[in-house]
Design brief:
Length: 132
């Protein structure tokens, strides 16, 4: 009986130590969080498909827990929409684009969310890179 008790005690403490180590690693090396601003102003379909490729890469990293997509905000001249959970890349690619680009609105969103990444077919800079 004492061997069984010793084995269970050892297994219990080992499991507790393993869980504690996992929590410490997660606390010391947190997953990067990103907020995405997606500009839905008019964009030709082929160009929109290309512009949304960075989202596909970020979503894949989100699924593999390499980063966390904290918030997705869709915007155009008609308004701003906060999406409750990160939509699939297919859902983003199928979004309708309409309206004129609104740089003032984009600037205001970026001021209120200074670390947000913008996905738009109206950008001239490189797409977001891996956060690693």
């Amino acid at each position: 009986m004492s061997r069984r008790k010793a084995l269970l005690t050892t297994l219990g403490f080992s499991g507790l130590a393993f869980a504690t180590a996992g929590l410490l690693i997660r606390w010391v090396f947190p997953i990067s969080q990103v907020t995405l601003l997606i500009d839905r102003s008019y964009c030709p379909e082929a160009q929109w498909q290309e512009a949304t490729q960075p989202y596909r890469q970020l979503y894949r990293q989100h699924q593999h827990r390499q980063l966390q997509i904290k918030q997705v905000i869709l915007f155009n001249t008609l308004g701003v929409e906060h999406v409750s959970s990160p939509p699939s890349p297919e859902a983003i690619q199928q979004l309708s684009t309409y309206g004129q680009p609104n740089p003032t609105q984009q600037e205001n969103l970026q001021k209120s969310l200074p670390n947000a990444w913008v996905i738009s077919c109206h950008l001239t800079g490189p797409p977001p890179q891996n956060l690693k």
